[in-house]
Write a structure and sequence with these properties.
By secondary structure, this protein is α+β, with helices and mostly antiparallel strands. It has seven helices and ten strands. It is 26% helix and 20% strand. The protein binds a DNA duplex through loops.
DNA sequence: AACGATCCCTGTTGGC
DNA sequence: TGCCAACAGGGATCGT
């Protein structure tokens, strides 16, 4: 599942191919992929003929600065991935968007479940879109424990749910949220406001290391369908996961069987002995 | 305002 | 073996 490490891996792969290049051809093949533009036809129309300036990332969004103050937004959703190919290479099924650069490189968006999208927005559109509610980036702008504690205080929502709230912190998804809580030894169902100062510090302390470890291993690829790197390789972080997807297996620390429950409608994996 | 539930979508999985 | 319901999940939206 593309979360911050997978999105950042994708950005780092695309940047050398796209930055400084002109998009000579752009095609949106699936209207749903362009749903975040008022007119989905604008997605391709606004990219065509324009130069890519800088590719940035905020949370799980790739935000690419284009000529004329346009922002090219890419969100991989749940099953989306980018592919770098030659224009004549065969396409994967579910290729919903294709851009071709002035160096004759094709950048394609493959997304079976269409939860992802591609948008190209003007400054005013960007300012009025939901992106303005995005919280600080979990890797680049991680708030202090004090600040994070303030965001948690008084909240009865589960800490797991709060960590997934992109308005609080942008970048964590289901896998890495579970992994952070496992290392911090905090139960995913704990009310966010009930965490002690030390527990808030522990949660905060493990956010960067977990994300950076994911990044160092090219992200997490759960199966063939899910996220792949733009060169088609699978991410290798899967084998380093401590709790996610390990329900029924022994905890690496104490041997207790890893449990799986639903928290805020999301599957949550934890050690009932280590996490309180 | 805060929170939970529901929906979108389709490939995979698990139960019968 | 084959069928089909359940499941996965980020984010928008709606109801309480």
């Amino acid at each position: 599942m593309p979360e911050l490490p997978e999105v950042e891996t994708t950005r780092r792969s695309l940047a050398p191919v796209l930055e400084g290049r002109v998009v000579v051809s752009a095609m949106l093949r699936h209207p749903r992929t362009g749903r975040r533009n008022e007119r989905s036809s604008d997605v391709a129309d606004r990219l065509r003929g324009r130069r890519v300036v800088t590719m940035l990332r905020h949370g799980k969004f790739i935000m690419t600065e284009m000529e004329d103050d346009l922002t090219w937004v890419i969100h991989l959703g749940m099953s989306g991935r980018m592919e770098i190919a030659k224009p004549n290479d065969p396409e994967q099924p579910h290729t919903h968007f294709v851009a071709i650069t002035d160096r004759d490189v094709a950048v394609r968006f493959v997304d079976p479940r269409t939860f992802g999208f591609i948008a190209v927005l003007t400054p005013s559109e960007l300012a009025t879109s939901s992106f303005r509610d995005l919280g600080p980036d979990a890797l680049l702008e991680l708030p202090s424990a004090k600040r994070l504690g303030e965001r948690m205080s008084g909240r009865v929502v589960a800490i797991k749910t709060l960590l997934l709230d992109q308005r609080v912190l942008a970048g964590l998804g289901n896998i890495y949220a579970d992994e952070v809580l496992a290392r911090a030894k905090v139960h995913p169902r704990r009310q966010a406001g009930s965490l002690s100062e030390d527990e808030v510090k522990a949660v905060r302390r493990y956010i960067k290391p977990v994300l950076e470890a994911g990044l160092a291993h090219g992200g997490t690829s759960l199966d063939d369908l899910a996220y792949l790197l733009p060169d088609g390789r699978a991410g290798e972080y899967l084998k380093l996961l401590r709790v996610y997807g390990r329900d029924g297996e022994p905890c690496m620390t104490c041997g207790t069987t890893i449990d799986k429950v639903s928290v805020g409608g999301r599957s949550s994996h934890f050690c009932p002995n280590c996490q309180h």
